[in-house]
Design brief:
Length: 323
């Protein structure tokens, strides 16, 4: 029996695939020395175009339509090489994706666990596994995922997100964080603690520090205008009702537009703008944290520190430019 099934499509990110296999192999090597179980895995290819050999896997098999109700492994799908969210419908309709989606759906319906990172999360969505779940993906793709699956709570701030049998991760190199999480959950923290020390890997809880605000709103005039209004109004942001009236739309329409464009609620977007403004001030000025907290609308520095740690996984002072 296998602990993990690594499912590869034709355009799987080579870096994500390599990270997956390297971590599994490293875990297998060190497990005996610390008296823990070693991971067992297989590599399955949804295409015969050579991705198995190119991935560095020495042994692999091809995906079939045959159901396997005895498969208790966690299926892991590394991200796909998509240029933008516009490529998603076309990619999901290709033969290897159609085959993979059907297999992922069967595995999920049989009670199996499925994990994916970056653009591969859309395979889970197409398989119907994200309905009424919380999930993450590459932050740049989060709005597209929220639009495709309105009943999924898309939390783009998170690096790794687990909801029952479904585990998702952010952009391509979040595959490392995903693998550490899955290994820890399946085989214990002793293995992953030693693996992290051996490979000099730090635990990262959030994508938020890497999100570029200008890219989050690119192409959406309403959201761009709204974020500008919020930032200019700091520290006292108008109420949501007043923001909607200023844009000549209803509160419900505003909420729907924000959710579609960013994957966030209105209040979460306001919080996001506050924190991004605070971060820029920390990075570009020598103002004390207490003063910055006041400028962006927090009652005190402790509130800013607490929220920054929650969203980014880091203390505000860590964003300070040492120069």
């Amino acid at each position: 029996m296998h602990d993990f099934t690594v499912l590869l499509l034709s355009d799987a990110y080579r870096s994500s695939v390599a990270a997956t296999l390297d971590l599994l192999e490293a875990a297998e090597r060190i497990a005996p020395s610390i008296n823990v179980s070693a991971p067992r895995w297989r590599v399955v290819c949804a295409t015969k175009t050579g991705i198995g050999a190119h991935s560095g896997a020495t042994q692999y098999e091809y995906l079939t339509n045959e159901p396997n109700t005895d498969d208790n492994s966690v299926w892991i799908v590394p991200g796909l090489g998509l240029s933008s969210a516009d490529d998603i419908p076309r990619r999901m309709a290709q033969d290897d994706a159609v085959l993979a989606i059907a297999a992922i759906r069967r595995h999920g319906q049989n009670g199996g666990q499925v994990a994916a990172s970056c653009s591969a999360v859309f395979l889970l969505q197409a398989a119907g596994l994200l309905t009424h779940r919380t999930a993450t993906t590459a932050w740049l793709l989060a709005p597209a995922l929220a639009k495709l699956e309105p009943d999924c709570h898309v939390d783009a701030d998170q690096m790794v997100c687990n909801d029952g049998p479904i585990t998702t991760a952010g952009a391509a190199f979040a595959q490392i964080d995903l693998m550490l999480y899955l290994l820890s959950r399946r085989l214990g923290s002793k293995l992953t603690d030693n693996l992290s020390r051996l490979l000099l890997l730090n635990k990262r809880d959030a994508q938020a520090p890497f999100i570029a605000p200008e890219m989050l709103v690119t192409g959406n005039t309403l959201i761009s205008k709204l974020t500008h209004i919020i930032e200019q109004a700091l520290p006292k942001v108008p109420k949501v009702k007043e923001l909607a009236a200023g844009l000549c739309i209803s509160e419900r329409t505003l909420s729907r537009q924000i959710k579609s464009a960013t994957g966030k609620s209105t209040l979460a977007l306001i919080q996001y703008v506050r924190l991004q403004k605070a971060r820029r001030l920390i990075e570009t000025s020598r103002m004390p944290i207490e003063q910055i907290a006041e400028l962006v609308g927090y009652q005190d520095a402790s509130a800013l520190r607490r929220l920054t740690r929650k969203v980014t996984g880091a203390n505000p002072s860590q964003f300070r430019n040492p120069n």
